[in-house]
Amino acid sequence: MATPATPGPVPPSVAQGKVSVAGGRASRGWRYFVTPMVLALLSLALYLWVSSRELDSIEERRLNADFISTALWQHVKLAGISTVFVVAIAVSLGILLTRPGARRLTPFVVALTNIGQAVPSIGLLVLLGITLGIGFTYAIVALVVYSILPVLRNTMIGLQQVDQSLIEAGRGMGMTKGSVLRRIELPLAVPVILAGIRTALIINVGTATLATFTGAGGLGDLINNGLRLGRDTVIFVGAALTAILALTIDWLASVAEDELRPKGL
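Predicted structure:
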């Protein structure tokens, strides 16, 4: 009677791979749970602190649910809409500039987008406000100009780092250039592109506080009103809410980055 074969030892590389995958999932799950809990506790602490203070009539007109919710929603719209335009413009432009026929334009376009980062954000908002006009729409334009560089640069880097042999293999299989771009280049570049989008989001959340100076609203209204009226409580609440919003959006972006990353990368 044949003796059953005894399973051999698991190769170290396989065992380490299983441990790293399990550890990565556990780490992501822990981060997904802890971060929102911390943000919720910070929001609750801020609410309890404001509730415990004796507010005068000026502070009560600023620190109420209607005013804060309106400012918060305006801020979210400013950051969200501007980032959508940034992604649409920068990813398309990044793809174009990595094609052989347009690479000669790369230095000029990158230098042009660098201007948005080189000019101070308040200066850019005021400059565009003077030349184009004030209001929500023109604040969006300024935010797009200011945050387009990270997404453009990461799109170009992500596409340029794709192994040329993979592209040649795809072409050898009869795939068109468009198919190679959609099925090989872009999926491999997704992690780098998502990192650039996450950076642009955080930039827009922070810079959107300055949109108050062009009449676009947002949480900057709280901070600006507090400064003009000499109310430190209003200033602190506006700054704290901006920080909490930035951390929340950064957490959401990190979750999206993990979920949208192609499997195996």
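Summary: The chain has ten helices and no strands.
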